[in-house]
Design brief:
globular; alpha/beta; 6 helices
Length: about 270
């Protein structure tokens, strides 16, 4: 019985695709957490595929080519962006050639870059895409629901993974429920606060409202609290100063997907603090 049990356990492991999704990587401390912890998480947990949000990796303000390559060198398969996609002008020098970098799919036509990537993993076709919410967001955007519908109708993948970059929890939850059973994983980014609602929806979609943030623990969404508090007290504009000292965190979610059924079999919240 023990031999049979081990055999069936190994068979289950063999058919599992373990995916790590990492919340917004913010500045120097976020990069440090990736460099210091990602390899250990990857090997210890048996991670095979990594998606990370990198729109704040350049000192909390966009992404550069060097930092994009840094993430690829640390085994990140797909890097997603968001409303800060074009905050750092270096992005214009490489975004059209970056095969593993995506900005929101529902940005207007003519915007540089692409909104999704389709690639092969083992025998599976995997499509990773990002949409951005319109509630409380100032960026001009097409409807994320309609653009996603168009994507699903025009691609044929075994697994779809969506990074929903948005402010409103209601919009993220509505999106996930609308596409429940049609998108394998829907996870939120942007608020930098990890939510306690990771779950498998009734028709099988793995969902979490926000992955959280990888970077400073004691800042206000990554920056020094003092100017932010002043802004709330006075209403005056202030300069955002990224936190460079203190405790750090790495937030994310591990999802196990059965490669034969394409269903989520298990998940684990990641919240590393050092």
């Amino acid at each position: 019985r023990n031999s049979s049990s081990r055999s069936s356990s190994l068979e289950r492991e063999k058919n599992l695709m373990k995916i790590l999704l990492i919340g917004d990587i913010f500045g120097t401390m976020g990069r440090e957490m990736i460099k210091e912890n990602l390899e250990e998480i990857r090997t210890k947990k048996g991670i095979q595929f990594i998606v990370a949000n990198g729109e704040n990796i350049a000192h909390g303000n966009g992404i550069t080519n060097n930092y994009y390559k840094f993430l690829l060198d640390n085994h990140v398969n797909i890097v997603t962006l968001g409303n800060h996609s074009f905050a750092n002008h270096d992005v214009f020098n490489f975004i059209d050639d970056a095969k593993n970098l995506i900005r929101p799919l529902n940005m207007p036509s003519g915007v540089p870059g692409k909104g999704y990537v389709t690639l092969k993993y083992n025998q599976l076709t995997v499509t990773v895409f990002q949409v951005m919410g319109r509630t409380f967001m100032s960026t001009p955007l097409d409807c994320p629901f309609k653009k996603t519908e168009e994507l699903l109708n025009s691609t044929n993948s075994d697994i779809y993974i969506c990074d929903f970059h948005g402010e409103a929890t209601s919009e993220k939850i509505a999106f996930a429920n609308y596409f429940d059973g049609r998108i394998n994983i829907v996870v939120g980014t942007h608020t930098h606060v990890q939510t306690n609602d990771a779950r498998i929806l009734p028709k099988g979609t793995m969902y979490m409202t926000d992955l959280g943030m990888t970077g400073p623990l004691d800042g206000i969404i990554g920056v020094n609290p003092t100017p932010i508090i002043k802004r709330f007290l006075t209403g005056m504009p202030v300069r955002h100063i990224p936190m460079e000292t203190g405790p750090k965190q790495l937030n994310g979610l591990i999802v196990e997907i059965n490669e034969l059924t394409h269903k989520t079999t298990n998940f684990e919240i990641v919240n590393v603090v050092k």
